[in-house]
Amino acid sequence: MKNTSYSIETRSIIKTYQSDFGVIQAVDDVSLQVSPGEFVALVGPSGSGKTTMLSILAALLKPTSGSILLDGQDISAMSETERVALRREKIGFTFQANNLLPYLTAVENVELMLRLNNKLDKAGSLRAQELLARLGLGQRLNNLTGQLSGGQQQRVAIARALIHNPSLVLADEPTASLDTERAYQVVETFAGLIHEQNRAGIMVTHDLRMCEFVDRVLQMRDGKLVATYNDRKSIMKLVNSRAGD
Amino acid sequence: MKRVLGISAYLAVKEIWRNRARFLLVSLVIALITLLVLFIAALGEGLGNGNREYISKLDAQLIAYQAKSDFLISASRLDRDRLASIRRVAGVQDVGMLGTANANIILPGGGEPLKAALLGIEPGHVGEPPIVQGRPLSTKLADEVIIDRSTALRSGLQVGDPLRIRVTQGTRDEFYELRVVGISDGQQYALQPSIFVPFFTWEQVRPKSEAEVNSGNDPVGNVILIKVKDPAQAESVSQRISAQVNNIEIATVAAAIQALPGYSAQQSTLNTQGGFTLFIGLLVIGGFFQIQILQKVAQIGVLKAIGTTNTIVAATFVIQISLVTLIGVAIGGLLSFLFSLTFPPTVPIVFNGTTSAIAIAALLLIGPLGGLVSIRYAVRIEPLKALGLSI
Q1: Distance of alpha carbon A154 from alpha carbon A175, whole angstroms
Q2: Are A199 and A168 in contact (CB under 8 A)?
């Protein structure tokens, strides 16, 4: 049954791998829902399954069982070609590193998403410039990515993730290569844009301090979803604990 | 398709332009390979041309050799009786005796004598080269000579000039005075510039052994050149001649060229060199793009993760490789042309349009071919692994 009030919804996702040491259950019966305008953090220690879960949500990896509904469409039943099209049209990404194409300028990197979706026109180009300006990169539009700092590169990646109005925005450890001050700036900006543009956002992070800006925290351990922090008080308690798991 | 090509061309050109020094370096390597391939092709053409030029330009379809001469012109001896016999065979339009020998041209200004092919032909018959300056040989005057363009270029001789040749007859050096009446187009024979004299003059002035000097035998040429009335019937005329004339063997002009001493071996050697150079080019280009793709695994992973299709990824590389190859071949072609202007006529290098076009087409193909492995690699890159997301 579809529930179209959620941007993304997973039902009993299981992902198992065959390794030299036997079968590994990377994700074990995870169900979650994220609504438009909601920014969710997926936290947990290394090996908890959060990166695998992100890959499944990003339509980069098929689950062993379970279903994933993005805007009501079941991703798990899609062919590879359909999933490529889905990633291009409905999902925005930022990665830990190597986010941008080094031979394109900041604005060209952002425009690339519009170009891939055949939506690059003057208005789109202007929107890309405005978005970068809002992210504090108005003076850096025509800089190659190599001429930008790590934080600036992440902000370009955020602009690229949002420019084509995706339903879901995914961020994998977006602050991993940044110092604390820049990390706060990047996540705060990211959260602001997700709320403002009414997108569903999911951020995988091991840095609990970054959860200060999210609406909900989902904690994973050994492939399972073990805790959910819904209210600001409990989230801040988690942030201040910095326990990580 | 248009959208795919548009995005691919955009990504390919942007990357080349923003890394132009690196890509130019590859283009320069391709330019050097182009230079080498074109020069080997031109050398092959020049050497082949120097060997076959006179034979290949003959207005004849068949050549008659002495039987069992293995189609070697210098080993064949035919007398004038056979010339008359062949002339009478149905379907034969014209025949001409050809005698080949070597002579040294004593240059008017002194210096090293010019070695030339001394060819005896029948004035007014098949075998006489077309004249571009002056007039053909007359049938009445024995001291006339036609020189080919390469002789004219190397000796500086003009129409009307006296031409002195030195030949060895018996144990003595003999000198003969001839007069240039015409200049033909290029008609090199056995890698030498050529001079053409009437057959009976040739019989008198050609190098001879002591026995030949003292004997009074009838004049003997090497081969008989045969022009048939209908070139399409050359095969049947050839069979008739073989049936009616004793002690001869017939070859087409094409077969006669292949039988020229060293011709086939020379051409196959140069073709092999050219082929190997292309193969090395293939490996160089393939190696470069493979290294480049290995350095860009993460970028390709990002592109695929954000929804770029494999078709766009592959087309981007094909366009990129093709452009780099095209620029390299263009630079190499231009360099070859400029270098060719500096070579003296003695260097056997001929930039033939067809040969050069084939070489250029082959060079343009080796880029995409060399890049096939890397394109396949790029298409198979898994975004999960490339981005370090796999467990």
Answers
A1: 8
A2: yes
What are the beta bridge partners of residue B166?
Answer: B104, B175
Mean pLDDT of chain A: 89
Any alpha helices (H) in B19-111, and if so which ranges? 20-56, 80-87
Q: Mutate which of B10, B20, B302, B310 to disrupt the A interface (most A C-beta within 10 Å)?
A: B302
Q: Give the homologous superfamily in CATH for domain A8-241.
A: P-loop containing nucleotide triphosphate hydrolases (3.40.50.300)
Strands ordered across the beta sheet of A39-43: A91-94, A168-172, A200-205, A39-43, A216-221, A224-229
**Tens digit of each residue's pLDDT (9 = 90 or more) over B335-376:** 998 988 888 877 788 887 887 888 888 888 888 888 888 888
Spell out the domain ranges in chain A: 8-241
Does the beta carbon of B380 lie under 8 angstroms from any beta carbon of chain A?
no
β-strand pairing of B114-121 with B248-252: unpaired
Most B CBs within 10 Å, among A79, A98, A143, to test the B interface = A98
Sequence-separated (6 or more) residues with CB below 8 Å from residue A12: A29, A30, A31, A65, A66, A67
Count Cα neighbours of A219 within 13 Å in the Cβ-side half-sphere: 17
Residue in the block written with tokens 């006529």: B345
Residues B97, B285 contacting (CB under 8 angstroms): no
